[in-house]
Every structure is written in structure tokens, then in C-alpha cells.
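User: New here, any thoughts?
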Amino acid sequence: MKDIEGRLRSYKDAPWPDENIVFENENIVVYKDGYPVTEGHLLFVPKRTAVSHSLDIMRCFEMAYRQGTEGVENGEWDAFNVGINNGVAAGQSVMWPHVHLIPRRKGDTPNPKGGVRNVIPLKGNYDDAIFSCDDWENEGGVTLPHVDDNTPREEIDFWRD
């Protein structure tokens, strides 16, 4: 198995302060996110990550999903996203696995269509009537610019306007 560069030895080495803990059991600890995207943003963190404990990250997803649906049912939020950033290329900055629950509310973004697809600039807004897996870089007849990790944010924002 490939060693992940910068991998933490324990969830306790992560920059999540104990005062942000909202739930804990023998397998999982749940923190309020220190840099929340929306009110109620939580991190579901497995305490162990060895292959023999791989069920723990699945428990995190299950618990996040359950918390998300309860929030919708209780009227705390309208919808939610559950996800994980796994690896630097996917945006992971704390090198210990954790699952995000991001509550969503109507109007929190001008166009929520595409949801998690929006992690790649300009890929979230698609139209089912014209979407084709064979031609997905030309969404809606628009030629997309070349975008890579070194493309300045201003250039991307200017292109979208």
C-alpha cells in the first residue's frame, strides 16, 4: 500500500480542537468544522484507519447521511452534501480521513445544480438534455478554457462572467 505523504499518525494530531467535539463513541468523533462552509458543517472522523478498521470510514458516511436527513426532517436545513476529500489532488488538507456534512439552504448559492460536481471549475452546471459522456468538455456548446492547478482564480472568474 502506498504511504500517503504527510499522513497523520492519529486523529488527535489533526488541528481539530476538543472544544469543537459534538459527539464521540469508540469508533468515531464528530467535530464542528473550524472553517464552516455553512452553519452546521460537521466533520465525521474515524478514530482508526487500518485496513482492519475500514468499516469506520463507512460508519462516518452513514452517520453523516443520517444527521443530514434528520436536519432536513427537523427543518434545520433544506438539503445537504456529504463528501470526502481523499488526497491532496482532491483538496485534502488534513491528512486523516474525515467525512464532511455540509447543510444546504435555499439561496445559499445562486445555482446549486450539479452539487458536488462544482468541485471542478465549470463542470457543475450541465443540462441533462444536452449532456453527453462522449462530449462532456463542451457543455452546452461552450468551449471550455484550459484550467489547471496553476490557473489564477481571477482568470477563471473572468472567463465565467
